[in-house]
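Figure 3 (text version): structure tokens given as input.
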């Protein structure tokens, strides 16, 4: 049990029951005295004299502790509604009168139905880890960002095993701001029957461990009510600013994917994004590449412009082309260029349109949301033009598990309209600064509504390897700008379709003694072989010219 009493600048906390202790806190100083009357000690374990204020309140403490003890004993035997309505309300009202301290809770998950991870929580966490955790006794260790600036002086360890220490559960630290003292308290949030209790004391519903599950964490900021304006108008913005700067300095970009598990705390799981692809290593027509880079740069710096024209700050890219032409590589290059995270949406693991919306809401700003091979993910193609029969078939394949007609509870029920809403519905505007990318091998199979300008603003064709792209790959893989075999390659590339992925593979030395000449000769040989294989195919086509092609029903 816990009760907080106040006298001037002193806060007095009394815990009774399991692990009993009595604590007093001055402006910056904490003293503690075990409830059974042993000598009080400082943080370093040295005995000190407990100030007179403790004696002053001793009688009051024991009476209140006794009352609370009786209360906690009786509580399980009284109807909950009665407790809440009469006794609970009574205690809360009187506690409020005694306590001039205000509490602000900064929760890990905020927003309606706790859909969204709180940015303020992360910023406060970074701020507290940097500023206050040296004074804390109970800490949580998290792996430090690799290559971060390490301005956080609370990281520990060496080499690749560095850790950032953040406040542990139930740890309390003090902070000073313009002469005011504030207290930060880290608490675990518990959920019961749809309600949330942040570090709720046992008599207020937090005690029945069996019925409570963990639902994120929170920080409680406690301050005197005379500092209310200072805290709300200056201190909290200061914490957010500092926290944001620390997070930016220590940021590790992430690659997220949706788990498909609906009852997890977060719908996304992530790994550190460490893809080496950049525009500098991407082989494509230089003018086209520059155009894409300019487009991305313009987007990144257009926050105000988007606001002025009344558009959500997001941009859609459709990357289409045959397999191996660099669509996925381009997505990684885009994220690296913009310094954004990647959210890789696996549509087949999304159960419904509502889940898709939740996924979107949980994404953060500065991110690339990508749906790969959208034509294969779901049957979203030309739905509007489908005959009833085709629709029934699609429904059978897509929504109903098997031919036996039994509904598969795990089958995705995402529809085209759900996906359209995902891209540019009302929800898509929350957060801002997002790039949405669809990749496909068959652009013609997509519903025009899905890829119209406004949804997919920029359509980029990733094509077979041209001579420019080959020269780029040769420079990248073999470090050559010119070679006698380049002319042969140039001629052959005009006649044969080969993907950059195949060219890259042929240019890569397979043995230590394979040199530039051998690699280029191998490429020429492969191109000639492809050309020879193409000719009979062409001849075959010519033989059958004029014949009507009859498709199987
Ligand atoms: N334009 C390119 N520039 C440099 N490397 C490329 C390019 N295109 C492909 N590659 C190489 O080929 C490999 C496969 O490319 P990628 O996965 O990006 O193709 P894709 O278009 O996404 O294929 P799919 O349609 O099958 O998903 C990559 O690992 C990359 O190394
Ligand atoms: Mg791909």
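Below: residues designed for each position.
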């Amino acid at each position: 049990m816990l009760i907080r009493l106040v006298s001037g600048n002193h806060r007095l906390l009394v815990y009774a029951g399991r692990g009993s202790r009595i604590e007093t806190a001055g402006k910056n100083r904490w003293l503690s005295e075990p409830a059974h009357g042993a000598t009080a000690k400082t943080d370093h374990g040295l005995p000190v004299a407990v100030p007179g204020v403790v004696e002053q309140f001793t009688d009051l403490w024991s009476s209140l502790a006794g009352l609370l003890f009786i209360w906690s004993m009786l509580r399980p035997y009284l109807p909950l509604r009665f407790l809440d309505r009469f006794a609970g309300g009574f205690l809360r009202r009187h506690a409020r009168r005694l306590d001039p301290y205000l509490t602000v809770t900064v929760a890990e998950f905020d927003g309606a139905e706790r859909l969204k991870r709180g940015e303020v929580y992360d910023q406060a966490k970074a701020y507290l880890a940097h500023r206050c955790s040296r004074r804390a006794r109970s800490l949580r260790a998290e792996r430090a960002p690799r290559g971060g600036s390490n301005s956080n002086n609370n990281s520990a360890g060496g080499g690749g095993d560095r850790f950032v220490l953040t406040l542990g559960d139930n740890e309390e630290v003090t902070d000073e701001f313009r002469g005011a003292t504030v207290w930060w308290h880290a608490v675990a949030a518990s959920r019961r029957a749809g309600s949330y209790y942040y570090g709720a004391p046992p008599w207020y519903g937090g005690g029945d461990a069996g019925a409570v599950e963990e639902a994120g964490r929170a920080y409680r900021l406690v301050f005197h009510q005379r500092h209310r304006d200072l805290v709300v108008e200056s201190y909290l913005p200061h914490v957010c600013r500092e926290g944001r700067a620390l997070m930016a300095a220590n940021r590790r970009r992430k690659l997220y994917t949706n788990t498909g598990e609906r009852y997890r705390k977060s719908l996304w799981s992530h790994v550190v994004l460490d893809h080496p692809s950049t525009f500098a290593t991407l082989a494509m027509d230089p003018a086209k590449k520059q155009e894409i880079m300019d487009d991305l740069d313009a987007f990144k710096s257009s926050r105000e412009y988007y606001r002025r024209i009344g558009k959500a700050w997001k941009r859609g890219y459709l990357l289409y082309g045959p397999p191996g032409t660099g669509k996925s590589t381009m997505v990684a290059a885009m994220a690296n260029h913009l310094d954004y995270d990647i959210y890789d949406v696996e549509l087949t693991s999304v159960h419904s349109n509502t889940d898709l919306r939740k996924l979107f809401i949980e994404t953060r700003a500065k991110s690339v949301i990508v749906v790969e091979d959208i034509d294969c993910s779901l049957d979203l193609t030309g739905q509007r033009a489908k005959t009833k029969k085709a629709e029934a078939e699609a429904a059978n394949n897509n929504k109903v598990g098997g031919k036996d007609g039994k509904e598969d509870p795990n089958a995705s029920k995402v529809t085209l309209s759900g996906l359209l809403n995902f891209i540019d519905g009302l929800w898509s505007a929350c957060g801002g600064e997002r790039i949405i990318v669809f990749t496909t091998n068959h652009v013609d199979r997509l519903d025009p509504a899905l890829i119209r300008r406004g949804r997919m603003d920029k359509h980029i064709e990733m094509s077979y390897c041209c001579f420019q792209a080959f020269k780029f790959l040769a420079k990248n893989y073999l470090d050559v700008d010119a070679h006698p075999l380049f002319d042969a390659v140039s001629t052959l590339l005009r006649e044969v379709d080969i993907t950059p992925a195949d060219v890259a593979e042929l240019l890569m030395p397979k043995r230590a003694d394979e040199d530039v000449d051998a690699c280029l000769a191998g490429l020429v040989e492969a191109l000639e072989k492809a050309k020879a294989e193409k000719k009979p195919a062409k001849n075959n086509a010519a033989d059958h010219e004029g014949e009507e092609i009859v498709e199987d029903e």
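The two ends are 76 Å apart (CA to CA).
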